[in-house]
Specification:
The complex is a heterodimer of chains A (422) and B (412). With 422 residues, chain A is of the alpha+beta class. Chain A folds into two domains: 198 residues, Cytochrome Bc1 Complex, Chain A, domain 1 (2-Layer Sandwich), CATH 3.30.830; 180 residues, Metalloenzyme, LuxS/M16 peptidase-like (Cytochrome Bc1 Complex, Chain A, domain 1, 2-Layer Sandwich), CATH 3.30.830. In chain A, a hairpin with a 4-residue loop joins strand 9 and strand 10. In chain A, helix 11 crosses helix 15. The termini of chain A are far apart. Chain B has 412 residues and is α+β, with helices and mostly antiparallel strands. Chain B has two domains: 203 residues, Metalloenzyme, LuxS/M16 peptidase-like (Cytochrome Bc1 Complex, Chain A, domain 1); 181 residues, Cytochrome Bc1 Complex, Chain A, domain 1. In chain B, strands 1-2-6-3-5-4 form a six-stranded mixed β-sheet, with helices on both faces. In chain B, strands 7-11-8-10-9 form a five-stranded mixed β-sheet, sandwiched between helices. In chain B, helix 3 runs parallel beside helix 8, helix 9 packs across helix 15 and helix 11 crosses helix 15. Chain B starts with a strand and ends with a strand. Classes of the chains: A alpha+beta (422), B alpha+beta (412). At the A-B interface, helix 2, strand 5, helix 4, helix 10 and strand 10 of A face helix 2, strand 5, helix 3, helix 4 and helix 10 of B.
């Protein structure tokens, strides 16, 4: 009979050996990060360090990314879709607040069939009117359906309240914005920002020199114009701290509770990340234990430290039955206060740290994960040494530092409450 | 493609081990062969409620998550109409903690009135969040009831109503556990950089002494062939009309399944698919339209689901779907189009094999479906599908009398 009363010996996560890419520059100065492996699958991520924050009109970055594969100088929309599907490839182009990423995953044997298409998508999209109408119609429908969800309403309002409506970190997209957007906006965005100076490539796969030369050759078509600098962020937070959006017939209310904080580049960010993890970042966290496992108010609650290029913020989000709303907010506020007044005990800190290290291990497992991690670093102009110091900081952080961090960053007067519900 | 070893303990627990030398993460999957279809019609939602209780602590471990998080692991679970599946991943050197945790809750769960009361409340909030407080949230409650008249697929895993969840009793919980959560009703799979010959004694040590359960035979009422087209219209506060057409089709274990699955891909997998090109791009009737099979072990539904553009009559939208169906029934698919969807299936599988958690899950599900096999056969079956198979299946399934049509419309 095994001894079931004791956990088997815990082996600490000592060394996290994160594979490093080979880094070099193509002749046009675009940096390349290459993870060479023996996999049958190859991947490429093409990153441009400009996103919706840099756009001039709403939805401009989103639709520029969305429309890249809808027609180029030599390939029609349908041909592109046909080629991608026929070769079992995955193409994904997405805009975030700070960048646009075009990712292709394809079996190595079909790599050279897809490469010319990919390059045209990035360097010579034509943004055809007909496809644009279809795409905006689809996106508008999705927008309107999402508008029926209390969660979406609370997210949109929360960002607006935090950053103000005059920059694209905070801007709350309106229905009319879909009508105002024209294909010329997409062409402008593409011309201005899809240039060698904002671009980087992350590759994973079993590449030989010939593949890389071919890639360089194709990439000479990318515009070499210098890319305009980003505007600075002017935050205009709302003066009112509490916001309520009424949604007729809602049986639950969505809560967003949070405040402005720091981003990844700030020296305190690792400590704050651990703290927010302890608060609500994993299943055994304080908020989950309190609101779900102890009181049964919600299916789930989470907190996170969101890092953007020019700002960072803390957000706590949940959906609760309407009758639990008031006490849920009070409980969230209590948990924050506890972090400011009482030191986290060493056992809890040990769990949080190990959970965080385990997550890091998962996010560096396999080449596709490494590729995502590399694009993140590239977006912040960080190198892989950042990860070493991040790991070091996680291991070194003490309960005292947690307390000080809570006192510095979780000031109640700075928190906003946004509720959408019945 | 995915090499593994298979064992069976004396108590009936099936064990599958896959060694992946390229990763530091190990995954453990435990599949219990019980789902919403095994519930009593007056006590629905129970399998899923029970899944929640599995995290409430076991005889020797007060909190399931804490020891796992302590070693850098994470976990989750899901309940479907057919199965309840638990999975976790953790740094491989701590694999024994996974066995300790999973075996303790298989040996004896720590039942209590308080834990039951709280998880009932959590599940009721989940019911609201996922089904009541969502636009189109009650679609499947309606559709299942239309399509299944006797089979327990007529209700969703969340249950028929909040009342059923409220009524769950502690004795029901205990009975359910000792009936279904026994080693002979479970499949354990492990994927990671771990040697099968060291894993086996460890698994034997932790799971070997858990007694097997009493044999039970699943005897579910099966649907008889549907003989008349069923139609229903509901009116709701929603921004767009939707249409659903659900046809009865085969079991997951039938060979026909592969042709039917590929047929759904031809219709709607990817931007080069038929429905997207014809109905979204050319005819501009829909903003989105999908064709998919529910994938269940007993008889599946083949479903068309479309969000209709405002200003389009739902009847015209329906007619357009019927034209696509007629096309499949009358014209053989071209080899190239079939090859395209086969390539996609193969690529999707190759991608999912990059991840240990997926691999462990795939092994367990494969064992459940194929039983005692040494290989994953799915991909071979997909490759064997011919244009004639697709034509035959289209003609078999797409009979109007075999269809349930739901018009989910805006209130005027």
């Amino acid at each position: 009979m095994p001894n079931r009363t004791k956990q088997p010996p815990i082996k600490e996560i000592k060394d996290i050996n994160i594979a490093r890419p080979l880094c070099y520059k193509m002749p046009n100065q675009v940096p390349v990060f290459l993870f060479k492996n023996n996999s049958e699958i190859a991947s490429i991520q093409i990153v441009f360090k400009k996103g919706s924050f840099d756009q001039e009109v709403p939805l401009q970055a989103f639709f520029t990314a969305r429309m890249l594969s809808e027609g180029t100088l030599t390939f029609k929309s349908h041909d592109i879709a046909q080629t991608i599907d026929y070769y079992g490839a995955r193409l994904n182009a997405e805009a975030s607040k700070d960048n646009i990423t075009i990712a292709l995953i394809v079996s190595k044997k079909n790599w050279s069939k897809l490469l010319p298409v990919l390059i045209e998508i990035v360097t010579a999209p034509v943004f055809p009117e007909k496809e644009f109408k279809v795409a905006t119609n689809i996106a508008l429908q999705r927008y309107l359906i999402n508008n029926e969800k209390v969660k979406t309403l609370s997210i949109r309002k929360f960002k607006e309240v935090l950053f103000g409506n005059h920059n694209f970190y905070g801007y709350n997209t309106k229905k009319e914005d879909f009508d105002s957007l024209k294909t010329v906006h997409l062409k402008n965005f593409h011309q201005k920002y899809f240039t060698t100076s904002s671009c980087g490539l992350v590759l994973t796969g079993n590449f030989i020199d010939k593949n890389l030369q071919e890639l360089e050759h194709h990439f000479m078509h990318l515009s070499q114009k210098s890319c305009p600098l980003s505007k600075s962020l002017k935050i205009e937070s709302h003066t009112e701290k509490n916001h309520f959006i009424h949604k007729k017939g809602a049986v639950q209310s969505a809560i967003r509770y949070g405040c402005l904080a720091i981003n990844r580049l700030h020296p305190d960010s690792t400590a704050l990340r651990i703290l927010i993890m302890a608060l609500g970042g994993y299943f055994g966290s304080r908020l989950m234990n309190n609101l779900r496992e102890d009181k049964g108010y919600t299916y789930g609650i989470g907190s996170s430290l969101v890092s953007l290029k020019k700002a960072g913020y803390i957000t706590i989000s949940t959906q609760v039955g309407n009758k639990f709303l008031k006490d849920s907010i009070a409980q969230i506020s209590n948990e924050i206060e506890k972090l400011q007044t009482t030191k986290i005990d060493t056992n809890e800190l040990f769990i949080v740290k190990n959970y965080l290290l385990g997550s890091l291990l998962r996010s560096t497992d396999g080449h596709l994960n490494l590729s995502n991690l590399t694009t993140m670093l590239f977006n912040y102009d960080l190198d892989f040494n950042y990860l070493d110091s991040y790991i070091h900081q996680i291991k070194q952080t003490t309960s005292e530092e947690m307390l000080i961090t809570a006192q510095n960053y979780l000031n109640k007067d700075n928190f906003y409450t946004v509720v959408a519900g019945g | 493609m995915l090499a593994f070893e298979r064992f069976e303990l004396n108590n009936g627990l099936k064990v599958l081990l896959h060694k992946d030398p390229d990763t530091e993460i190990a995954a453990v999957n435990i599949l219990y062969d019980v789902g919403a279809r095994d519930e009593h019609p007056k006590k629905t939602g129970f399998a899923h409620l029970f899944e929640h209780l599995m995290f409430g602590g076991s005889q020797n471990i007060p909190k399931y998550d804490e020891p796992l998080e302590k070693v850098g692991g994470e976990n989750n679970a899901f309940t479907s109409n057919d199965i309840t599946n638990y999975y976790l991943s953790l740094p491989r050197h701590n694999i024994e903690t996974a066995f300790w945790l999973e075996s303790d809750r298989m040996a004896a769960l720590d039942f209590s009135e308080r834990k039951l009361a709280i998880q009932k409340s959590v599940v009721i909030e989940e019911f609201k969040e996922s089904y009541l407080n969502q636009p189109y949230g009650d679609t499947w409650a309606i559709l299942r009831k239309m399509a299944y008249k006797v089979h327990p697929y007529q209700w969703q895993t969340i249950g028929k109503s909040i009342k059923h969840i409220k009524n769950a009793q502690l004795q029901d919980v205990k009975d359910f556990f000792y009936k279904f959560y026994r080693p002979d009703n479970a499949i354990l799979s492990v994927a990671g950089n771990l040697e099968p010959h060291t894993m086996m004694p460890m698994i034997e040590k932790w799971f070997g002494d858990i007694p097997a359960g009493k044999k039970h035979i699943r005897d579910l009422p099966q649907e008889t062939a549907q003989r008349k087209h069923r139609r229903k219209t509901v009116l709701r506060d929603i921004p767009f009309n939707k249409i659903f057409k659900a046809y009865h089709s085969c079991k997951r274990t039938d060979k026909a399944y592969y042709a039917i699955d590929l047929m759904s891909d031809i219709l709607s997998n990817g931007k080069s698919s038929r429905l997207y090109n014809n109905l979204v791009k050319k005819k501009k009737l829909f903003a989105s339209i999908d064709a998919y099979i529910t994938g269940s072990l007993d008889n599946n539904l083949f479903v068309f689901e479309g969000t209709i553009n405002n200003g389009i009559d739902v009847k015209d939208a329906e007619k357009a779907i019927e034209i696509e169906i007629a096309d499949l029934c009358h014209k053989k698919v071209k080899e190239k189009e079939l090859l395209k969807v086969k390539n996609k299936v193969e690529a999707t599988l190759a991608l999912s094999l990059l991840n240990v958690t997926h691999k462990a899950m795939l092994l367990a599900i494969n064992e459940l479906i194929d039983g005692n096999t040494k290989t994953l056969k799915d991909i071979e079956y997909y490759k064997m599908v011919t244009p004639d198979d697709i034509l035959n299946q289209a003609q078999t399934i797409f009979n109007t009398n075999n269809c349930s049509t739901l018009h989910y419309l805006k209130k005027k």
